[in-house]
Amino acid sequence: MLIAGFSCVDFSSLNNKRKTLDGSGESGGTFWGILGYAKRYRPRIVVLENVRTAPWGKIAEAWGGIDYFACHAEVDTKAYYLPQTRERGYMLCVDRQRMREHGLEETAMADWVKILSQFKRPASSPAGMFLMDPDDRRLEQIENDMTARIASHTVYNWERYQVRHQNYRMNMGLGHRRPFTRSQEDGSSQMPDFTWQPWLRSMPERVWDTLDANFLRKLVEGYDMNHKERCIELSQGIDREVDTRAYGIVGCITPSGIPYLTIRGGPLCGLESLSLQGLPLDRLILARETQAELQQLAGNAMSSTVVGAAILSALIVGHKVLDKGSQQPRPKKEVPRHKRFELCHDHELVSGSINVDEATDVTISDIQAQAASSARYCIS
């Protein structure tokens, strides 16, 4: 079985310069590489992942050209346990030659879409449950590292983009004030006390105005965003990221995103992004990676709960095309040796009676004497 995801940059709805599958782009190049591998080595089952807007029809035709059956399903991560809006497309490809050898029909393979849907369970834990505690000592170091990384980047002039912000403010009736950042024309600002002030000051003025506009937008809706758990994607335009998600749900985690947590006053760090992808941080050794590298890893990763459901569904419908393993199944009643409980032969069990319903009279002086005899004293 081959599990693969190819580059989505040319198919993403956030890209204004998209390319086709046949174009000389990164997405097409990585896809044709996977197809070439499958054509030569003929994996029995292939599970593909990419964005929902990928050309899945043409992708299915390409797999049909090398004698593979293909069917496609659209999923959203927040429908599979995790509180993240991540709309993706998955495709199951099965070698038709192996299907013919085992007498499997394409209609049976197409049930993969229905079985995958049956694994759904809407996220019931809010995103805050996946975040570090506010008093976690690692957050201070993470804040310093992220501030130093951003401050070292070039800050571009945003005059052309400023017109877009002004038009949006005027159309939404938000006015021209900056109540959140209190930024001035000379580049100074006065961020709220609870925020990651060095990190916010290192951000470009476009981000400051995005925060101010979101603050005003939430006031119009009737609440102060500083006291509600919201996640705003600051890397996107003010008219693209309108923050209409349900409470407790974050937006799609991307490699170069800037997800801002309103109750923290700072960004979502790389470790938290991995956690929101369903990766077990306690089982990963993450010591030398920077927060930017962890963010890229999380943004390019598949949500573990979704890809896990896709793999299980593929095994349910197509397990017959796989080669049988050589390991013999263990009898159900047999217990592994390392889990067996055996009595030591050097000791014998002694029977005795315990009367739990009998009470013994104990005086306070006896208790004090026993406490004194068991106390630990300093050795001078």
Automatic annotation (TrEMBL):
Q: Which domain of life does this protein belong to?
A: Eukaryota
User: Has keyword RNA-binding?
Assistant: no
**GO terms for MF:** methyltransferase activity
| Keyword annotations of the record | Methyltransferase, Transferase
- GO biological process terms, semicolon-separated: methylation
Q: Which Gene3D superfamilies match?
A: Vaccinia Virus protein VP39
Which Pfam families does its entry note?
A: DNA_methylase
Query: Mind telling me what this protein is named?
Result: DNA, SC011
Organism of derivation: Aspergillus oryzae (strain ATCC 42149 / RIB 40) (Yellow koji mold)
